[in-house]
Amino acid sequence: MGYFMKKLILTVCLAATGVFGAAAQMRLTLGEALDLALSENPTVKVAEMEVQRFDYVKRQTWGSWIPQISVGGTYTRSIVKQSMTKGLSFGADNTLAAQGDATWTLFAPAVFRTLKMNDVQRAAAVESARSSRITLVAEVKKAFYNILLAEQSLEVLRESQATVQRTVDDTRLQYDNGLASEYDLLTAQVQLSNLKPSILQTENSIRLAKLMLKMYLSIPENVEIEVVGELDAMRDAVLAGTDGLTTDVQDNSDLRTLELQEDLLKRQLKVANAGRMPTVTAFFTATYTGNDIDMTKLNFGGAEGGQPGDVLDGSKFWWQHPMSAGLQVSIPIFSGLTKMNRSREIKNQISQIGLQRDYARQQIDVEVRAALNDLLTARETMYAQELTVAQARKAYSISDTRYRAGAGTILELNSAQLAQTQAELNFSQAIFDYLTAKAEYDRIVGKEN
């Protein structure tokens, strides 16, 4: 689904919210939920903005190679001019000055190595964004499956409630006709009452699970959502789900992040070492100044300053425009051992990150094996529970027939009904356990979707 389609879905839903208020509702499949989360979740947006930020960081570094040009100007009005004995004074009443400077870095190893470091920084930001997407996909799947499990559990409990209610009604009728004891009626009523707390708790679980999914999808709380699908319908996916699964974790985001952090530290070390190398900068300066000094009043020992032909009109400015250019070489010689200790600090960090990476790999190897074990266990449990459900339903049917014929007891019927309900819940739980374990496995191995 394209970006504009995702935005259209959310816009339509928000528009519906404004028109219908709390009655607005969204129907979401798992695929639509994932697309919406990846396009609207703030965590993903921030991670993508961080990638863009490092593009700007690299452009700033590139700017160090581009000539730097600046201009400035001043105006000075003399209030009291400097004077000497015999009436000799210096300075002008008004002085104007404008200056332009240009510098161009010709040789700066630290800048070049910083550019290489910026590439690694951006790669780390890209991996961080990828990690955010992988984690979000896993969490959205778990939240989605949690809603399906709660809704299916609620359906099983309500079916059980309807069955027990029918038993209570039948037992009451038999009790009124003297065919059943008060104990049988009370036992049936107690079993019915015991189901109500479970139903209320499950309904609350559905509300909380939907709030969690809305948070991941950035959907307003007043928009009702309905997830499309059933856990039991995913049975075939469970049966074929373990094909091709391995313990390969080379795409694990945590490991790749640690590798990039180590590479980044190595680049930082090169930048730090480059600080010991000389830099060469070209410069150019142009100045344009003017003042209204009266040359006719300059008097050196009683003599008039200048020749008659050189006398300037006092109302005019005397302008000058000197220019200069050159090269500046800067060679670091001694900086209090700060550069050496900075290099040692970075080397220490590199050693630390190496140990962290090795330990993290061991942890992740254990995690992926545990996830695979959970997958296999959940699948085998589903096999067993599928058979158990069939047996429990048959046992309840027999018990119900016996009870209605007067050959069975209410305890036998209640036990069979409870066993059937538990078997159906366990079957749904096994499918849920498999799907959540698969989502966790995909996160560990670094699978995005």
Summarize the structure.
With 449 residues, the protein is α+β, with helices and mostly antiparallel strands. Helices cover 63% and strands 13% of the residues. The protein has 9 helices and 9 strands.
Q: Which structural class fits the helix and strand makeup?
A: alpha+beta
CATH topology: Outer membrane efflux proteins (OEP)
Number of helices: 9
Largest sheet: 5 strands, antiparallel
CATH architecture: Up-down Bundle
Family: Belongs to the outer membrane factor (OMF) (TC 1.B.17) family.
Pfam family, one: OEP
Signal peptide: 1-24
Keywords: Cell outer membrane, Membrane, Signal, Transmembrane, Transmembrane beta strand, Transport
Characteristics of this structure?
449 residues, alpha+beta, Outer membrane efflux proteins (OEP), 5-stranded antiparallel β-sheet, 9 strands, 63% helix
Descriptive account of the structure:
Its main location: membrane. Belongs to the outer membrane factor (OMF) (TC 1.B.17) family. Keywords: Cell outer membrane, Membrane, Signal, Transmembrane, Transmembrane beta strand, Transport. It is a single chain. The protein is an alpha+beta fold and 449 residues long. It has one domain: Outer membrane efflux proteins (OEP) (Up-down Bundle), CATH 1.20.1600.10. It is built from nine helices and nine strands. Strands 2, 3, 5, 8 and 9 form a five-stranded antiparallel β-sheet that branches.
